[in-house]
Amino acid sequence: MNLPKLYTISGVDGSGKSTVARLLKEEFMKKNKRARIVHGGGVIGTASAPKNPISPELGFIIFLKDYLQMLFQYLISIGSYDTLIFDRFLYDSTIKITYKQGISRMPEFYLRLISALFPQPTVSFLLVLPPSLSQERDLGHSRNYHLIKDRLYRELPKHLPLVTIDASKPLKEVFSNVRRFIRGDYESL
Questions:
Q1: Contacting residues for 39 by C-beta, under 8 A, at least 6 apart
Q2: How far apart are CA 189 and CA 186, in angstroms?
Q3: Whole-angstrom Cα distance, residue 109 to residue 97?
Q4: Of 156, 181, 158, 66, nearest to 117 (Cα)?
Q5: Interatomic CA distance for residues 154 and 164, integer angstroms
Q6: Whether the predicted model's global pTM rises above the 0.85 cut
Q7: What is the pLDDT of residue 108?
Q8: Tell me, what's the pLDDT at 188?
Q9: What gap in Å lies between CA 185 and CA 189, rounded to an integer?
Q10: Cβ(50)–Cβ(152) under 8 Å?
Q11: Alpha helices in 102-163 (DSSP H)
Q12: How many H-runs (helices) and E-runs (strands) does the chain carry?
């Protein structure tokens, strides 16, 4: 039984994760590949600032919840799908927890857990754009939220093998850059 290939798309709110995931799924389906989008993680409050930071224990419980949800989605896809596209992944969960804990650096503990406990993605994309642009696209959060999250996301490639894509470009160019990194995974896309 073949295991599905995993693609992850991470980035701050407004970076275009869901749009790129949808386009990627459509691209795979054009090649008769069974593709599915998995929405990773969940919301832990809508406040733009962590007024009451969460404890490390609660942070771990949230990480564990996200991990189990994503692992379950992966396991039930084995044999049914060729490709899983994670619209947000455990990387995003780690940043969400770091932000909600009100700390300035991601705990490397979570990054090591991801590498040890989850099947490694074929390609992981990080969509980046200036905080001013992400705030324009996502009016539900404050300027400070976007500044902090941008800084945390830009730290990720120092610890993980992510392909960074400039999401401030026109969508056609953004998706063209994504396609360059998946071209060899299936016959030419």
A1: 87, 88
A2: 7
A3: 12
A4: 66
A5: 9
A6: yes
A7: 85
A8: 41
A9: 9
A10: no
A11: 108-117, 131-137, 143-155
A12: 7, 5
123-128, strands of its sheet edge to edge: 35-39, 83-87, 5-11, 123-128, 163-166
What is the structure's pLDDT at 45? Answer: 52
Check residue 184 and give its pLDDT.
61
Position 43 scores a pLDDT of 54
For residue 77, what are its two tokens? 């896809």
According to DSSP, the β-strands at 163-166 and 83-87 are: unpaired
- Which pLDDT score is estimated for 105? 82
Exposure class string for 4-43: b at 16+ Cβ within 10 A, else e? bbbbbbbbbbbbbbebbbebbbebbeeeebebbbbebbee
Alpha-carbon distance of 10 to 149, in angstroms, equals 12
The confidence score (pLDDT) of residue 46 equals: 45
d(CA 84, CA 87): 10
Ranges in the chain, pLDDT < 50: 46-49, 187-189
> Quick one: pLDDT at residue 185?
56
- Nearest Cα neighbor of 165 from 10, 18, 14 is 10
